[in-house]
Design goal:
Distance between the termini: 30 Å
Number of strands: 8
Structural class: alpha+beta
Strand order of the largest sheet: 1-2-3-4-5-6-8-7
Shape: globular
Oligomer: single chain
C-alpha cells in the first residue's frame, strides 16, 4: 500500500513536536479504525456533512468503505485517509469521478484534533494533481456549504474559482443550506503547478 508524506506541517501549538502525516488509501479492512476516528470527530465532522450519520457502527463503516472500494474498481470515485503521527484523523475523496467526461468532485473531512495543520489543503493538492496530470481530468469541483468557512478557504488556497451559489439547495438536519460550487480547470492547475515549480 502506498503512503504519500504530507509534511512539513504547521504546528498545532508552540509545544507540538514534529509529527509526520501521510495520505493513504482508506479501505474496508480499516473499518474499525475508521469508526474510531469518526467517533472522535462525530460532532465536528457532522456540522456540515452527513458522513457521521452514515458511519454509525462497524457494519455501516465497513459498508461505506466498501462502497468506495467498488467505486474505485469502477473508476467512478476514490477515498483516501489522512494519518497524523500514525492516527487516522481525516480524509479526502473523489465523490464523483468521470474520466470520459473529464470531470470530478473532490471533498474532505477532518476531526478537530487535526484542524489548523494544513492537512486538507496538502492532501487535496495531491489527489487533484493526480486527477489532472495523470488522468487528464479537465474540471475538478468542490461543493461546500456557504456556512463552512474552513472548506471555502481550502477551495481558495487550491486556486479554485467560485462558479456560483445554489441557493438553499441542500437540506441537512432541518436546515436548508446555500451550496457554493468552486472549480479549477486542468489548464489553470497545470499553470499554477508550473509557477510553483519555478518559484522553488
Amino acid at each position: 500500500m502506498f503512503a504519500i508524506p504530507l509534511g512539513p506541517l504547521r504546528p498545532a501549538s508552540a509545544s507540538a513536536g514534529d509529527e509526520s502525516a501521510e495520505l493513504r488509501p482508506l479501505e474496508p479492512w480499516q473499518a474499525e479504525e475508521f469508526l474510531a476516528h469518526m467517533d472522535r470527530g462525530r460532532e465536528y465532522i457532522g456540522e456540515y456533512i452527513g458522513l457521521p450519520d452514515v458511519v454509525a457502527d462497524l457494519d455501516s463503516a465497513r459498508g461505506y468503505l466498501q462502497q468506495y472500494a467498488d467505486r474505485q474498481a469502477a473508476d467512478s470515485g476514490r477515498l483516501y485517509g489522512i494519518w497524523l503521527a500514525g492516527t487516522l484523523v481525516g480524509g479526502v475523496l473523489f465523490r464523483t469521478f468521470d474520466a470520459a467526461a473529464g470531470t470530478c468532485e473532490a471533498g474532505c473531512w477532518l476531526e478537530p484534533a487535526a484542524v489548523g495543520r494544513g492537512l486538507i489543503t496538502r492532501a487535496a493538492r495531491v489527489i487533484i494533481d493526480w486527477a489532472v496530470v495523470e488522468r487528464g481530468i479537465h474540471r475538478v469541483e468542490w461543493v461546500v456549504s456557504s456556512e463552512n468557512g474552513a472548506s471555502v478557504k481550502v477551495a481558495e488556497r487550491l486556486g479554485m474559482t467560485r462558479d456560483g451559489v445554489l441557493r438553499q439547495s441542500y437540506a441537512y438536519r432541518g436546515v436548508r443550506h446555500d451550496m457554493e460550487v468552486w472549480s479549477v480547470l486542468g489548464p489553470e492547475w497545470r499553470k499554477s503547478r508550473a509557477i510553483a515549480a519555478d518559484a522553488r
